[in-house]
Amino acid sequence: MSWQATILTLFPEMFPGPLGLSLAGRALGGGVWSCQTHDLRQHGLGRHRAVDDTPFGGGAGMVIRADVVDAAVSAIQAPEGAPRVFLTPRGRPLRQQDVSRYAQGPGVVLLCGRFEGVDERVLEARGIEQVSIGDYVLSGGETAALVLLDACVRLLPGVMGSDESGVEESFSDGLLEYPHYTRPASWDGRDVPEVLLSGNHAAIAAWRQKQAEEITRERRPDLWSAWLDRRERNEAAAGRSGQSGRTGV
Ligand code: SAH
After folding, report:
1. DSSP assignment of 96-111, as one string?
2. What pLDDT, in 10s, does the model give residues 40-58?
3. Which region is the signal sequence (predicted)?
């Protein structure tokens, strides 16, 4: 059974878009995942198939109607247990741990907003999670959906060349990844860090760990303090189990 992406959108032709190429495209062709779009316009009202209306309370822009979204959600066939996700800057930030949870399930149903967004009631009533891909505002949810899907699809079994490349990378252990270098060893007057040419695997691992820590501390104080907290807790736990081990002897 393949992993199934179901996308509710006013622009179905945007999919699979860039995910039809490269690794994701090959996996799509090979049936590892499937990408089904469902046009919200089908459920629009009246001669013009209107999907939106003006906001109660006034203000700029238009809001996608709850009844239109509900009709679309009822019309699709998504696998049992697939989370429903509305992409919105008001959502909880998407993290690698969410991506890996989605990738381990049967698939996802993604609702792409346009205009000012979607009537809040249908999100509540139909158990639709709200997820943001970052602190900036896009013109529509489609590019955000492509980001979420790209992150999920590369984790599906058999999509990436080596399973290792998914384990040892940014965020997987709470740190950003160390820097990479390849040939030539000397370029534009810059030499590759010597330790990487040493063949000393322990020294290389230690250097990479230190780099990952320094870069995270500098660039992402939020990740760094979470990582320090976790390390402290782990050390405390190890200390406790060490003590009980000694008293047990
Ligand atoms: N008025 C909204 C922004 C609407 S942008 C607000 O201020 O919160 C139009 C649509 O683009 C949204 O409904 C959403 O589906 C999508 N979108 C914009 N920015 C996004 C982000 N950072 N993450 C996920 N989706 C986003």
Report:
1. HHHHHHHHHSSEEEEE
2. 999 999 999 999 999 999 9
3. none
Looking at ligand 1, which residue's alpha carbon is closest to its atom 25?
88
- CATH class held by domain 3-155: alpha beta
Q: Is there a binding annotation on residue 51?
A: no
Domain boundaries defined on the chain: 3-155, 186-242
Whole-Å CA distances, 13 to 4, 7, 37: 18, 11, 8
- Say what the pLDDT of residue 98 is: 98
Q: Is 133 in the pocket of ligand 1 (CB under 6 A)?
A: yes
149 annotated ligand-binding residue: no
> Atom of ligand 1 at shortest distance to CA of 140?
11
113 in a labelled binding site: yes
Give burial (CB, 10 Å; 0-12/13-18/19+) of 106: middle
pTM of the model: 0.94
